């Protein structure tokens, strides 16, 4: 008899509510989710469905009110703020909708930021930065500032920053929401490459059905619960 | 370099690099700090200059005897019989004696006189008066002749009023000839006019009067012996203090008064500047919300977010301190000022921006940055990270 491997990301009975105007507004009332290692999941759903709350909890920025949330062997629901912050720095990369690059740092310096949290020498950091910039096709742009780049290039810098510390998990929040179609496709190709070739587990929140097609499966979230799942052909 | 140091350095660098985005409000913070520093340095340099002028005036080896129960020259009166009694005393009074065995002393009175509509002190003294004092040199001309209506003017006063050797000035009802200038190394003596005792008495109808008696002590420690000798004279209450103590007490009172006025003004301004700093740094945090939340989301510590904002505040305050100190040094150092000193006469002094003045004013300026930046820096550590995930950077 073969044992089913434990999911990489596992949410069980997760409850979350926010106090709005003195009243508790429930977002999740017992959410369950299992994502195996190496999966590429797109999460879609209307505004207010809980996509952002889910992403915040997966990122360790927010914590469930009840239930369990584990990624790998770590129980994020049991960690304090500082521990989650440290966990995030070592195990996860985040790709933001608006890139969130620091405008006064060069492309290389932006990519280097997560490496500053690790005990690496300057030379090791520079080598890693050069490697990922090459990977996202921006070799030679190390000294350029974000303002000198197109949206697509900035997002590729954002992706380089997310993967430079070689995390197992990438969280992408509307990564193509601010891009034209051509740039969006380039970024999505990049994410697919990272998933298929480098075996990164990717969770991507998106409104764009075209973007969702790049994922292995798409989960539809509505009113705090998953209502539909589509697998890529 | 530890990861914490690297995080802090990046945050500090990004904060400082983004200053041009907030140039106007950042400059206003630095300028308000500069203003506070400048004002405080102004008051402190005034007090310091006043102290320097008076402390330089007194010697511990000169005793000043005052009569009538007062401890100031104004209002003091020493009867002639007291002076005769003192002169007649034999034995060791602690006072130096000349070759003839007489006490080295100078009887003195001070007459307030008007010169160019300002009140000056005209000091009448015995011939030994200038030599009793320490550090007095005739810088031009000569000393007055006993009995003649001649005056020697302190360098500072002569320079300010353009008194040249050979000039004639009217003091009271009679004319006086300026026969010399004296230097007292910038001390309060240089604000006085000196003349012969008898000439001053005659011109101002103060025959027989002595306000103070200056005595050259054998050594500074012998003041107690003089005080013991004076205690045996019961005709009038007599006080003997060292000249250094007399002027130090005068300078202490006035310098305290200047500081008592200066510190509250500077502190009130500092409170305003701190509020300004708080506003500037709150604006800075608001301007960098996305950047701070982004690096925090990447795993940067709260401490690095705190230090980034706090150091920015201290750097801006430091720039203000530099500007303020530079301005105060350029404006105040060496500035000629005057006040009404003892004997209701004008006393000139020079503002002195000394290292301790710079240090005190500078520390107050930095305190504005440290306090004004702390709360916004704390706020930076508490920014909701969700802002980073949805905000347009």
UniProtKB/TrEMBL annotation, chain A:
Residues 9-233 form the ABC transporter domain. InterPro entries: AAA+_ATPase, ABC_transporter-like_ATP-bd, ABC_transporter-like_CS, ABC_transpr_LolD-like, MacB-like_ATP-bd, P-loop_NTPase. The keyword Membrane does not apply. GO terms for molecular function: ATP binding. It comes from the Bacteria. Signal peptide: none annotated. It holds the Pfam family ABC_tran. Keywords: ATP-binding, Nucleotide-binding, Transport. Belongs to the ABC transporter superfamily. This is ABC transporter ATP-binding protein. It comes from Shinella lacus.
UniProtKB/TrEMBL annotation, chain B:
This is FtsX-like permease family protein. It is found in: Cell membrane. The lineage of its organism: Bacteria, Pseudomonadati, Pseudomonadota, Alphaproteobacteria, Hyphomicrobiales. It is a multi-pass membrane protein. Residues 29-232 form the MacB-like periplasmic core domain. The chain crosses the membrane at residues 260-282, 303-332, 357-380. It comes from Shinella lacus. Keywords: Cell membrane, Membrane, Transmembrane, Transmembrane helix. Residues 265-384 form the ABC3 transporter permease C-terminal domain. InterPro entries: ABC-4/HrtB_transporter, ABC3_permease_C, MacB_PCD. The keyword Transmembrane applies. It holds the Pfam family FtsX.
